[in-house]
Amino acid sequence: MKRKVIITVFVLTCLLSLNVFALNGAVEGEKVSDAKYMADTLWVLVAAFLVFFMQAGFAMVESGFTRAKNAVNILMKNLMDFSMGSIAYWAIGFAIMFGTGSAFMGTSGWFVPADSTAFASLEWSSVPTHAAWLFQLVFAATAATIVSGAMAERTQFKSYLIYSVFITGIIYPIVGHWIWGGGWLANFGAGMLDFAGSTVVHSTGGWLALTGAIVLGPRLGKYDSDGKPRPIAGHNLPLAALGVFILWLGWFGFNPGSQMGADAADISLIAVTTNIAAAAGAITAMITAWMFLGKPDAGMSLNGALAGLVAITAGCAFVSPVSAAIIGALGGIVVVLSVLLLERLKIDDPVGAISVHGTCGALGTILLGFFHSDQGIFFGGSFGFLGAQIVGVLAVFVWCLVTGFILFYGIKAITGLRVTEEEEQAGLDYEEHGASAYPDFNVSSIR
């Protein structure tokens, strides 16, 4: 009897110990899960803040590369495209981009309800819906502000407000749905890949900028009577350089943040490929400009760094550092050639936005078909994947040209798009805003 009691007590003690161990394990598991959830969320928010700071970078680049008499106008445009875009992307843009719907667009999740099940395409990330929205919002604002640079110094301010809403609320989100929201390009053939938005963000902004620049026409004095281009120097190259360095910094949120989680090894590699591509782009742009222009042009070199960043954005998580250097170097070469070509075609882009974002965004997306570490042609991959990349680039190009021309010609017909010759000559700061960026100086002397 005594032996039975001892055995019973022993068995009960073992079972109790196992239960306590299991409970402790569950608690530890919950702690680990909670810690990862917090780390992922904090990283995505910090990355969003870095990308938001890129708005300042774009404002500095654009104002530095243009004339002093238009600086206030440019600052206002960069302020208001984010402000207008925030409301539009909150109300409808995020739902169109990531909401459940068709292969063309999302049709659920309006006004971003936090507890909604409408955003099935984001279930791969554990971060809260509102954190995901904020991160995606700053991308949408980037696409809109790209357009500002190509249309600078001659666009009516009220017209800019109108097209900012349409870009962030409709045109850009539909492209995003096609590729990131489970739409038709994500499922076309081998499936198009664009990790952080060489095409989704940058080419979309760049191609819309192209349509806007064509509809507007060149600035007064850009071409002589024989149709030859004349340089119109920006008023503050140090300011433009500051903007480029801010953008370079912001890209460490743009690309690693697109992992949507604090996975140390992954975001570290992405940061490395991002930086190497930017450096390579700056170097090759400098060399290319030196060859074609006879001098190591500073403006071209600055845009070369941005070109490398744009080109690597599609594949930053999928390529090696060596491949990133090649992609960035090709971006630096192509951006210079693209700027010179567009100038000859009488497409006036004061800051090179079309070449940096449109041309090099498409280039980087297609190059991923060659350099992807698993699926790229150079690494034993199939032509099916390369084909999907090319189809995606072409589809977005056509979409942006069609919608862009409809948008800008529509605005031109209804409210007007371009300022008068008198307003353009006087500068948009006084004419549109009644202010000057440099009230203590004679602006005409630093044009």
Indicate the radius of gyration in whole angstroms. 25 Å
Mean pLDDT: 92
Please report the distance between the alpha carbons of the first and last residues.
105 Å
Please bin the fraction of helical residues: 55-70%
Order of helices and strands: HHHHHHHHHHHHH
Count of distinct strands = 0
**Rough shape?**
globular
Low-pLDDT ranges = 9-29
Number of helices: 13
| Strand percent estimate | under 5%
Counting helices, strands and paired strands, the structural category is mainly alpha
Major β-sheet, in short? none
What does this protein structure show overall?
- The chain is mainly alpha-helical and 447 residues long.
- It is 68% helix and 0% strand.
- It has 13 helices and no strands.
- Helix 5 (198-216) runs parallel beside helix 11 and helix 7 (264-293) runs antiparallel to helix 8.
- It is globular.
Short descriptors:
single chain; 447 residues; mainly alpha; 68% helix
